[in-house]
Amino acid sequence: MKYLSISLLFLIAMCQKDDDETCLIDQPDLNVVCIEIYQPVCGCDKVTYSNNCYANASGVSSWVDGECAD
C-alpha cells in the first residue's frame, strides 16, 4: 500500500509537469514585427503580454484577454 501511494503521487506530479511544458510551443520568434497597440493578454505561462502578437511571438500556445492577476 505504501508503494502504491508513492507511485500515485509521482504519477500526479509528472502529469502536472507535462501541462506546464505544453504552454510554450516554440522558441521565441525574434523576427516577428508586432504593432504597438496595448491590448493586454494573459498567457498560459501567467505573463501579461502587450497584445496577442507579442504572446504568439514569445512562443505561448494560448492566452486570454486582459492582464494576469497578481
Provide a descriptive summary of the structure in words.
The chain is of the alpha+beta class and 70 residues long. The protein has a domain of 47 residues. 37% of the residues lie in helices and 11% in strands. Strands 2-1-3 form a three-stranded antiparallel β-sheet. The longest helix has 20 residues. The radius of gyration is 17 Å and the shape is elongated.
Outline the fold blueprint.
Layout: H1 2-21, E1 41-43, E2 48-49, H2 52-57, E3 63-65
Antiparallel strand pairs: 1-2, 1-3
The radius of gyration computed from the alpha-carbon positions, rounded to a whole number of angstroms, is: 17 Å
Number of helices: 2
Helix percent band? 25-40%
Query: Quick check: average pLDDT?
Result: 80
| Distance N to C terminus | 40 Å
Q: Name the strands of the widest sheet in spatial order.
A: 2-1-3
**Which structural class do you get from the secondary structure elements?**
alpha+beta
Record field, number of beta strands: 3
Sketch the topology as an H/E string, one letter per element. Answer: HEEHE
Largest sheet: 3 strands, antiparallel
Low-confidence stretches: none
* Gross geometry: elongated
Percentage of β-strand residues: 5-15%
Features:
elongated; three-stranded antiparallel beta sheet; 11% strand; alpha+beta; 70 residues
Write a concise synopsis of the structure shown.
The chain is α+β, with helices and mostly antiparallel strands and 70 residues long. The protein has helices at 2-21, 52-57; strands at residues 41-43, 48-49, 63-65.
